[in-house]
Amino acid sequence: MKKSILFTSILCLSLSSQAQKLSNYVIQYNQSFNGNTAANQNAILVYANEKETFVSSAKEMNGQLAPPYERVVVERAGGNALLKIAKLKDGSIILTKDSLALSKQKFNATNETKTILGYPCKKVETSINSNKIEVWYTDKLGVKGAPSELGQDLGLVLEVIRNGNTRTFATKVEKVKTIPDQLRLKGTEKPYDELSYKDLIWKNRFIQIPVFRKESIRFSDGVKSDSILRFANGTVLVKKVKIPKIKTSDNVFVQLVEQSKGDAYDRTGSVFIIPTNKAQSFLDGMINGMGTLPKYENGNGKAYQGVVKTTSFEPIVELMRFFTPFGVKQFNYLQLKDKVWQDSVLYRQDVTELAGMLSEQEVYVGAFIGNYDKNGHEVSVELTIHPGFDAESKGSLKKTMSLFTTTNVMEMGGQEYGSMFDKEKGLTVSFHLDQDAKNVQLRYITTGHGGWGNGDEFVPKENRIFLNDSLLFKYTPWRNDCGSYRLSNPASGNFATGLSSSDLSRSNWCPGTVTPPIYIDLGDLKAGDHTMQVQIPQGAPEGTSFSSWNVTGTLLFD
């Protein structure tokens, strides 16, 4: 019994002695770009001894770092495992572990040497995603570590240079008694495979606002939902969405994923906002009938419902105009040699300029695809808000005013097509500014539609925009790159000429694409009344075929 106690005591003393003999270091790193080192940056901190390495930062150690953020740990004893540990916004801790990651890193040795902070260093090189990386390390301290996962098994990395201009360099190497306990695993971290781990961190870096998730847009009244309003026989979806505060440094995107569920044709689509800042809104017309909305007339005998601003009404604002391809997904069985059809189409667009009408608001977001198919299309829509690279939010968000939208999203609910350009009057709208407006822009989206060979869809037509009776801007919208999207169009008709219908150039759109806005500078506008007019030489009808134009105009100003 006495011998057992004695042995245990000696073993404990031996382990204690080994722990005391471990040489613990903390290395601090800064970063520079093109020789310029930013002030007040978050210094990288590496804690290392012979058995383990931790990569952290000064702000994390001081509790000043906002999640999500990561820490790298190398367990050198028993396998040289690389662990990545992240803290998410909800306070949870996740990790992923790879025992082979470090062994997969490959470097090319060089004969170059230099001294860094008094330590002789060797240089190796590697290439990552076409980036040339130079790594300088020393093996004179008996420990291994690096400011990232790269080079963790070389020695102690004191400098990393990427593409000759981005430099991470050690500023201090200091011996310490122990490695802080706050860096060690607590046993409550949730393990994930590496791909899931990366995805969780990525999605934690921005705000996702889901709007529609795999919802049907089809010509049918059979689909019901408690939270989603459906109009025009199911071809329009509307949902009220709460938007958090958006800073001027943030970026805002709208994203839609579409698949055909039965409709084989290229269709006009739109993701839009319904302004509710006036006595009457477009939603009122959706509910009570389009005939209840203000009507615009140009003298051709037609009445166009809800397309121009009045003193008591603002038309919809299109976040994104898109066009479905010919039958993506549903018709992928229509095989052609050397053609591998896409499974779906992703449309994604920056709409940051409209943040002023979204920030801290509850807004009605709509999605529309014009079709008469009982199975139609399936869509998912979301908004995302991304923090800007500039941490400070300066100034104010742009103000907005919706002037006109002729895109007839209620097409299947009786809304007239935008055919008012058959007269010289075209589209004319009056608007009033209560105050002087600075840096005014017109956010303008335009696409031509209708007919076959002689319709405006296939014939370039000049758009002319007048402000207060003076010509402000003119251009001819046209897309000649439609053939680039052939793999999204399995049901597109093929002609004897060797072309597909989806290849043909069109008036500012292609099947399977977004039509982005253009931004027309108006300068500064004085308070008071103003008039804007859009003229397009719209083609005459041919039999039952006719031409029309979907144009949207929104003012942006300070």
UniProtKB/TrEMBL annotation:
SMART domains: N-glycanase_N
GO MF annotation terms: hydrolase activity, acting on glycosyl bonds; oxidoreductase activity, acting on paired donors, with incorporation or reduction of molecular oxygen, reduced ascorbate as one donor, and incorporation of one atom of oxygen
Taxonomic superkingdom: Bacteria
InterPro entries reported in the protein's UniProt record: Cu2_ascorb_mOase-like_C, PHM/PNGase_F_dom_sf, PngaseF_C, PngaseF_N, PngaseF_N_sf
Peptide-N-glycosidase F N-terminal domain span: 208-385
UniProt keyword annotations, A-Z: Disulfide bond, Glycosidase, Hydrolase, Signal
Pfam families: N-glycanase_C, N-glycanase_N, PNGase_F-II_N
Secretion signal span: 1-19
Record's protein name: Peptide-N-glycosidase
Gene source species: Sphingobacterium paramultivorum
